Automatic annotation (TrEMBL):
Organism: Gluconacetobacter aggeris
Protein name: Gfo/Idh/MocA family oxidoreductase
Gene Ontology terms for molecular function: nucleotide binding
InterPro entries reported in the protein's UniProt record: Gfo/Idh/MocA-like_OxRdtase_N, Gfo/Idh/MocA_Oxidoreductases, GFO_IDH_MocA-like_dom, NAD(P)-bd_dom_sf
Gene3D superfamilies reported in the protein's UniProt record: Dihydrodipicolinate Reductase, domain 2, NAD(P)-binding Rossmann-like Domain
Pfam families assigned to the protein according to its UniProt record, in alphabetical order: GFO_IDH_MocA, GFO_IDH_MocA_C3
Annotated ranges, domain Gfo/Idh/MocA-like oxidoreductase N-terminal: 7-125
Domain GFO/IDH/MocA-like oxidoreductase positions: 135-252
Length: 334
């Protein structure tokens, strides 16, 4: 049975234009019915370009519409908390960009209020929906490489000029909360555990200003004394994204797999050599919004829940504290 689902976009963003509108419309009954922008001209142009019937500058107007069942929030990070709370109190399900908020306390409150209101809260952590990472998770779960020892994540690229903006110019931006937080969520998904401590060093000045981080080297310690190294950045052209998971009997290698696009390969290297794992790629956002749509109609849960968003934020903020203090920081995920 097809359940019609009306969506409101809170934020006329690049990610909404490039990925999310298509993902919503790919769901049976999925319709984008309105977009909110603080700039009336931008909202009007966005609505016209993307065949959206209504645009508004008023959050109250958007949330009061009875034909909107769910909202997707992709505004500036500092706005997520109040907008998500307002949406939940209006009875709208919420898919929110990461980070959910700028503090663990606020993110946890978002989860609490959404639960109290009976609405579904999802965090748009897209990488756990990739065929590559789903395959890697299955290989780890099946014990293909034995007990885990260490891992490396490579997620440094060059941020296009059109995408720089707040990411490198505002205090709630920076590589850590915009990009590395995805690596954190992916590792939590792959290992089915939270890290216990964090250490990080950041760099700034190649693209960012005012000390905002545009590069990071980080280490997370997971249970079982598993160490993970993360390299993230906005200033590294031609760098392939990837991940290596090292176990007692072999290594899982994911190449070109830290991308929004459905690309990449997964191989296992052990005593018998290296063999590529067969994959069937799919659109990451189609899967994420498919699971979210099912969840709001009472079937299953989002790919990344509100609780997942709280956890990734808590770990990211521990890395930020480490970079500021030069100390290894213990992690307590709520």
């Amino acid at each position: 049975m097809t359940h019609p689902t009306g969506w409101g976009l809170i934020g006329a963003s690049n990610v909404a234009r490039e990925w999310i509108i298509d993902a919503i419309r790919a769901q049976p009954g999925g319709e984008v019915r309105a977009v909110l922008s603080s700039d009336v001209g931008r909202g009007a142009a966005f609505a016209q370009a993307n065949d959206i019937a209504c645009h508004t500058t008023s959050l109250q107007d958007l949330l009061s519409r009875p034909d909107i069942d769910a909202v997707y929030i992709s505004t500036g990070n500092r706005l997520h908390f109040e907008q998500a709370i307002a949406a939940a109190r209006a009875g709208k399900h919420v898919m929110c960009e990461k980070p959910l908020a700028l503090s663990v306390e606020d993110a946890s409150e978002m989860v609490r209020i959404c639960n109290h209101a009976g609405v579904v809260l999802g965090t748009n952590h897209h990488l756990r929906n990739a065929a590559t990472h789903m395959a890697i998770h299955g290989l780890i779960e099946d014990g293909r490489i034995g007990g885990l020892i260490a891992a490396r994540v490579f997620h440094a690229n060059f941020l296009a000029a059109a995408l720089q903006g707040w990411r490198v110019n505002e205090q709630d931006g920076g590589v850590l909360l915009d990009s590395t937080i995805h690596d954190i969520d992916t590792l939590r998904f792959l290992f089915d555990e939270n890290p216990v401590s964090a250490f990080a060093m950041t760099q700034s000045g190649r693209l960012a200003r005012d000390g905002i981080a545009d590069g990071i080297m980080a280490i997370l310690r997971f249970p079982g004394d598993v160490l993970v190294q993360i390299h993230g950045g906005y200033t590294t052209p031609f760098s392939p994204g990837g991940i290596e998971i090292m176990g007692e009997r072999g290594i899982i290698i994911g190449r070109d797999c830290m991308s929004q696009r459905p690309i990449g390969t997964v191989s296992v290297r052990d005593a018998d050599g290296e063999r590529e794992i067969a994959l069937k790629h799919h659109n990451l956002y189609h899967r994420a919004f498919g699971l979210f749509t099912s969840a709001i109609h009472g079937d299953g849960r989002p790919a990344a829940s509100g609780e997942d968003g709280v956890a990734s934020l808590a770990i990211a903020l521990a890395l930020r504290e480490s970079a500021l203090t030069g100390r290894e920081i213990g992690i307590n995920v709520p």
